[in-house]
Amino acid sequence: MMNFVKRKWNKVYSVFFKKSKTKYYDEKKSLGIIIGSNSFIEKPKTLEGARYIQIKENSSIGHSSWLGAFDKYLNQSFEPKIIISNNVRIGNYACITAIDEIFIDDGCLLSEYVYISDHYHGFDPTLNTSPNNQPLFSKGKVKIGENTFIGYRVTILSGVELGKNCVVGSHSVVTKSFPDYSMIAGVPAKLIKTYNFEKQCWQNENH
Description:
This is Acyltransferase. With 207 residues, this protein is mostly beta strands. The protein has one helix spanning 2-19; strands spanning 24-25, 34-35, 40-42, 46-48, 53-55, 60-61, 66-69, 72-73, 76-77, 81-84, 89-90, 95-98, 101-104, 109-110, 115-117, 120-121, 136-137, 142-144, 149-150, 155-156, 161-162, 167-168, 173-174, 182-185, 190-196, 201-204. The chain has 1 helix and 26 strands. It has a 10-stranded mixed sheet with strand order 1-3-6-11-14-19-22-24-25-26, covered by helices on one side. It starts with a helix and ends with a strand.
């Protein structure tokens, strides 16, 4: 099933970019991002900290994305990284922001409007100031394991690690980590199924 979805996705991208006049960027014209061979990114809506962002080989990011790797905020300093590995497909309107590290492993497929962030705004009401003027905090790095499929409008928050070959249902909010071969969904996301290798199928957790 996953291979079928990826083949269809690749076909759509191939047809679209042969016909499209939309401006996009690759290893020769990279917007300052480190971009590997046969990879490209359509014109992003917002791009910050390009030198901390790496897209490896045979990967793509759709249009109107917000990619942000922030090394400074107010009086804070960070060492951010966003690494998008090989053979990754990320849909339109993705928002990926880091002050620590976000790593998306080989072969992942991310649908449109996905939000991934390794940090959040602090909010101390006694300061009597806007959240925009309060510090950023991180619970840790975000890692998406290889060949994982992230559905439409999924949110993945700070400190989350997803294993390989996971599936995340549309509109889910992922607040904690899950192991390899997990199918998760909900707000907050919960384990729905795991892959049974003996039966070669996804199996409900309450079987």
